[in-house]
Amino acid sequence: MAPASAMELEAPPPPVTPAALPAKEIKSPEVSALSSLQRKKLGAHFMDSDERRFPTSAGTRTPLGGGYEPPSAAAAAAGTTPVNIRGQPIAAADLPRTGGWVAAFFIFGNEVAERMAYFGLSVNMVIFMFKVMHRPFTSSANAVNNFLGISQASSVLGGFLADAYLGRYWTIAIFTTLYLLGLIALTVSATVPALAPSQSGCDNLAMLLGACAPAAPWQMAYLETALYVTALGAAGIRPCVSSFGADQFDERSPGYKRRLDRFFNLFYLAVTVGAIAAFTAVVYIQMHRGWAAAFGTLALAMGASNALFFAGTPLYRHRLPGGSPLTRVAQVLVAAFRKRNAGFGSGGFVGLYEVAGAKSAVRGSAKIEHTDDFPWLDKAALQLDGDLLAGAGEGETVDPWRLCTVTQVEEVKILLRLLPVPACTVMLSVVLTEFLTLSVQQAYTLNTRVAALHLPVTCMPVFPCLAIFLILALYYQTFAPLARRLTGHPHGASQLQRVGLGLFFSVLSVAWAGVFERYRRGYAVRHGYLALFLTPMPDLSAYWLLIQYCLIGVAEVFCLVALLEFLYQEAPDAMRSVGSAYAAVAGGLGCFLASALNTAVDAATRDDAAGRPSWLAQNINVGRFDYLYWLLAVLSTVNLLVFVFVAKRYKYRVRVDAQATTPVNKQ
After folding, report:
1. Which of 646, 640, 647, 644 is nearest to 503 (CA)?
2. What is the number of other CB atoms lying within 10 angstroms of the CB of residue 526?
3. What is the pLDDT of residues 488-517, one digit of tens each?
4. What values do phi and psi take at 135, rounded to 5?
5. What CA–CA distances, in Å, run from 455 to 10, 280, 452, 495, 542?
6. Beta strands 446-447 and 449-450: pairing type?
7. Residues 6+ apart with CB under 8 A from 634
């Protein structure tokens, strides 16, 4: 059964009964030249495994071409079967008392506090370094951009540890504790006078002129160590929390996809609640109670969330780590390279190798159906005469650096197929990063007062969060029913269609930002504000920025929520944390790419000899932020077209259900 195109909306085909499922022939480009007697077949009953092993006793494993016996019901212990904290399978009678929405809400609480700390630092740390540590504004901004980029791009570390050795629960437990220690260290930095330079004689003018006493190297070393410990904690948590929450739902139960869809929407709602708290409550506390109180609030929130997370321990369902995913990937690449000259029609060809029976060779993973993509990787599973070795009392063994199972090869194929999708979301992260800084500079020149309400400029990023909150809250009452009527899709739109819709809204957002910035700059020039770039123009409201904020909020809802759901469902069972890390890495790359783009634009557009200012001049009324926005709009449009090309050619995984032995075509 061929996988459906990712952009199709047709309902999945009816289930195939085990009796109607013939043995599946594994085909490669060169196999068609073989006679029928030379072709080797793979039994289609793919069951799961709780054991990772290559050596097995004789008689329980056969290469492709051996006839498989249908497994007994006792052998159908699924590789994705949930286990308790001690790694023991949870009895069927105890499953209703674990997992589900109750366990998920403990995880939501942890995510709210983590996002509150993350966004609280992103908003306040630049100002803290500038005003308290007396660092140049550019240097402060770069330090925080590095914090944001490292905390996202290094998420692969957390995903690797979770999938390879620790499991998601212990990875979260360790890194969330590290996160708390980093926040406590930052609170100490803001509390103890000895850890900051002297504030004597450092007024606003001295600050702008750089005349304040600079921080000592050891003081900056302490602050940066605390900041990067916090970044490391965030990097370890981010790829695991969403996956661990999704683990609480039984993928073999009816309605699993509907519950998973709702889970990821609620998860991003938790992210948004944390961001709203950071942009409002934390900013208010900093303005009225000082830096120590602001950072202390973040530490207290993180401590409370840790306590909540650990309190839910008896309720959690766990998945067994499957061993090092990097090792398995390396084994496939090395084995494929070693057999690069071997042909499927060579005299020593035996078949594509897979362990027999009900169990996969990868602990915590179901067997994966063979696909025809990346045929050069199939060489890693190409079994030739002599590949099986005699084991002392263990029957036959294999060298995993010379011969890999079909499941192991398919894991690598899946990781390669997934890469282009999160790569296309890097541009959205670039736009989000630019908005975080450029729109705040715009807001400084605008009137932020509405009636008696005067909103601080640093609170302006709360508006995209409010838009996200509203959309997520109304998603199942508004968008989903309307989209279902239009498309007939049970969820309104497929995961990749929602990602594409989000990218489309990001194009609209940045295009509107360019239009408004052109009007704002022209207004400043016409009304004599050209040199007064820090003076609000009383007749031009900052709330015109709400249009671009709301559009980018819609883009986040559709793109990032669907991306998390897509990566969780499509990633190999034993690599789901690494799959989720793809999204975080894309976000980190977006931060770094935004900084690189700004540097390139500044260098290309500045001409001091001719008196031509940069597009990104410190005086926003002299610069041309509108040109940068339109450049981003063009790049985002090209990125959207590339994504459509990728999505139309993506094929969702074909899963084989361990309970019914029924292929399930994912839509």
Report:
1. 640
2. 9
3. 777 677 889 889 999 999 999 999 999 999
4. -90, 150
5. 48, 10, 10, 37, 10
6. unpaired
7. none
- C-alpha span between 370 and 1 (Å, rounded): 11
Q: Which helix (H) or strand (E) holds 395?
A: strand 395-398
Model pLDDT, residue 111: 86
Q: What is the pLDDT of residue 389?
A: 61
**∠ CA(451), CA(456), CA(461), 5° rounding?**
110
Report the interhelical angle of 576-605 vs 545-570 (nearest 10°).
Answer: 140
- The terminus-to-terminus CA distance of the chain in angstroms comes to 14
Exposure string (b/e) for 648-664, b if CB count within 10 Å is 16 or more? Answer: eebebbbbbbbeebbbb
- Give the model's pLDDT for residue 354: 81
Helix (H, G, I), strand (E, B) or coil at 350: strand
CA-based nearest residue to 613, from 628, 596, 593, 595: 628
* Mode of pairing for the β-strands spanning 453-454 and 41-42: unpaired
Q: Which of 103, 66, 62 minimizes the C-alpha distance to 82?
A: 103
Query: Can you tell me the distance from the alpha carbon of 305 to that of 341, in angstroms, rounded to the nearest whole number?
Result: 55
Q: Are 263 and 255 in contact (CB under 8 A)?
A: no
> Amino acid identity of 277?
A
To 5 degrees, how large is the angle CA 226–CA 230–CA 233?
Answer: 140
Which residue is associated with the tokens 């057999």? 339
Where do we find the tokens 């036959």?
396
E strand intervals along 448-589? 449-450, 453-454, 537-541
Hunting for tokens 């976000």 — which residue is that? 587
CA distances from 650 to 8, 97, 173, 567, 572 (A): 11, 38, 35, 13, 16
Mention every residue, 6+ apart, whose C-beta is less than 8 A from residue 83. Answer: 50, 89, 90, 317, 318, 319, 320
In the predicted model, what is the mean pLDDT of the chain?
A: 77
Low-confidence ranges of the chain (pLDDT < 70): 1-80, 137-138, 204-205, 207-210, 344-350, 357-359, 364, 388-396, 450-453, 491, 534, 654-667
CB 29 within 8 A of CB 375: yes
For residue 447, give the 3-state DSSP assignment.
Answer: strand
Q: What is the pLDDT of residue 264?
A: 85
667: tokens are 């839509």
C-alpha to C-alpha distance for 386 and 246, rounded to whole angstroms: 43
Instruction: Select from 546, 618, 584, 485 the least CA-distant residue to 138.
Output: 618
What residues pair up with 398 in beta bridges, in sequence order? 388
3-class DSSP state of 389: strand
